[in-house]
Amino acid sequence: xxxxxxxxxxxxxxxxxxxxxxxxxxxxxxxxxxxxxxxxxxxxxxxxxxxxxxxxxxxxxxxxxxxxxxxxxxxxxxxxxxxxxxxxxx
Length: 90
Description:
Number of strands: 3
Number of helices: 3
Oligomer: single chain
Strand order of the largest sheet: 1-2-3
């Protein structure tokens, strides 16, 4: 998987007015993209999601998902399988 395939942009989801911004983002896809939370570049993570002015890597996303799922409770069996599968692949 090439580095530019590791970055997914959701900037254009807001509508057509963001199309030019998305195109300029796609042209810069060869430049490293850094996670806004942990600071790692897309070359050091599994995937990176790019939003308008913010980026989040797959690892930080899973940490956030774990936080939201757990909320001081045990996750459901299905949620735990997904979390275990993700962390075992890293």
